[in-house]
Amino acid sequence: MELRLPVCVLLLLCATKVSNGGRILVWYTEASHWINMKPVLETLVDRGHQVTVLVPSASLFMNSSEPSRFLYEPFDVSVSVKDIENIFEEVLHFSLYEMDDMNPFQIFIRFLDLMKNNIKVSFKYLDGVVKSETLMKKLKEGNYDLLYADPIYPGSDLIADILGIPLVFSLRFSIAHNVERMCGQLPAPPSFVPGAMSKLTDKMNFSERLGNVLFYALQDLMLEQFMWKEVDKYYSGVRGTPTSACKMMGNADIWLLRTYWDFDFPRPLLPNFKFVGGIHCRPAKPLPNEMEKFVQSSRDDGIVVFSLGSMVKNLTTEKANMIASGLAQIPQKVLWRYSGEKPQTLGSNTRIYDWIPQNDLLGG
Ligand SMILES: *[C@@H]1O[C@H](CO)[C@@H](O)[C@H](O)[C@H]1NC(C)=O
Ligand SMILES: *[C@@H]1O[C@H](CO)[C@@H](O)[C@H](O)[C@H]1NC(C)=O
Ligand SMILES: *[C@@H]1O[C@H](CO)[C@@H](O)[C@H](O)[C@H]1NC(C)=O
């Protein structure tokens, strides 16, 4: 009986020791994917975990010299920052300016071209990890407890397998939910779950449902031919045995989906798929004075925050004027993140900014 208290204390001490935090390895990523990931890593550090981020020598957004509370594990890749910029520029130009004037066949051909290029570069990044004996040795000796990855760049599942550690994915979606369905086994009945990027909704008539079925089938076929086969070949080469990359992704323990049930169409989920949309949001800080005045001047109409994302800073004069004249017609005050020349049709309700504190504007 008298032993009970000391045993309790001992157990408690053990528990605190165990909960002292894990060693988390973080897969490299890019642009908004990295912006989104950073606050999550900050929180992990707050909770006592040690966070180590893999950072390629060529990256637009990741910088291993930037001071931070997590550790960096930089590695060399055989592509330059300029190469990466060119690739992004090409993809953006295609989606912003070329796509509208193309027929579906032309879009398909161009898209394939961009995809092939993208995979080639992804493998060059992966080479930087897998083919570096020094880095692989370091990772093995790092005794990590978990790999945290956005699967936009392939290879995290391969490394988690080699290191023998659990894998947690964080993703927004893949085209036609291909990765979630084929690798994560997430059900997606085409009768009411519109394929991601199909532009359909969950209210479909017969022909739209048929279109949805075809959309899934075509995307699966295309990705199988032009992506999965390549990734399988790469993985098989590294492991020395025939390997299905999709199966390996299916080994992920948890899939964190960066959306929310009220932001997406209803669909069946699995217990290891969790909605974490807004996980990067933080309490709003006060706005700069000038911006605060502008926002308050909107009174009951409210404000509109307009941004084309982390990658699109400017547009052609024609597109910018078109957007500006559209924005000029709404009663709200508009804060537009735009670094191009001031459009002539800019309304008095709209202001353009090089950068906007999006979290503080929307959180306030
Ligand atoms: C990386 O961060 C360092 C330290 O903040 C800074 O001096 C350097 O300019 C940054 N490099 C790039 C490419 O942004
Ligand atoms: C189904 O909906 C589409 C889009 O609203 C419409 O164009 C089409 O005519 C509809 N088809 C049928 C058979 O109702
Ligand atoms: C946007 O800016 C980049 C870099 O300054 C430039 O190369 C590109 O041509 C610009 N695009 C447009 C549409 O003005």
Q: How many strand elements?
A: 10
> At the first level of CATH, what is the class of the largest domain?
Alpha Beta
Fraction in beta strands: 5-15%
Number of helices: 12
The whole-angstrom Rg is 23 Å
Sum up the overall morphology in one term.
globular
Kindly give the count of domains.
2
Trace the largest sheet across and list its strands: 3-2-1-4-5-6-7
Name the CATH architecture of the largest domain.
3-Layer(aba) Sandwich
Bound molecules: 2-acetamido-2-deoxy-beta-D-glucopyranose
The structural class is alpha/beta
Describe the protein in words.
InterPro entries: UDP-glycosyltransferase, UDP_glucos_trans. Residues 1-21 form the signal peptide. This is UDP-glucuronosyltransferase. Belongs to the UDP-glycosyltransferase family. It comes from Xenotaenia resolanae. The chain is of the alpha/beta class. The chain folds into two domains: 21-275, Rossmann fold, CATH 3.40.50; 289-363, Rossmann fold. The chain has helices spanning 4-18, 31-46, 81-98, 104-130, 133-141, 156-163, 178-182, 206-239, 245-249, 289-296, 317-327, 358-363; strands at residues 23-26, 50-56, 71-75, 146-149, 167-171, 254-257, 273-275, 303-306, 333-337, 350-353. The strands form two sheets. A seven-stranded parallel beta sheet has the order 3-2-1-4-5-6-7, sandwiched between helices. Helix 11 (317-327) links the parallel strand 8 and strand 9 (333-337). Helix 3 packs antiparallel against helix 4 (104-130) and helix 4 runs parallel beside helix 8 (206-239). The chain binds 2-acetamido-2-deoxy-beta-D-glucopyranose (3 copies). One 2-acetamido-2-deoxy-beta-D-glucopyranose binds next to helix 8.
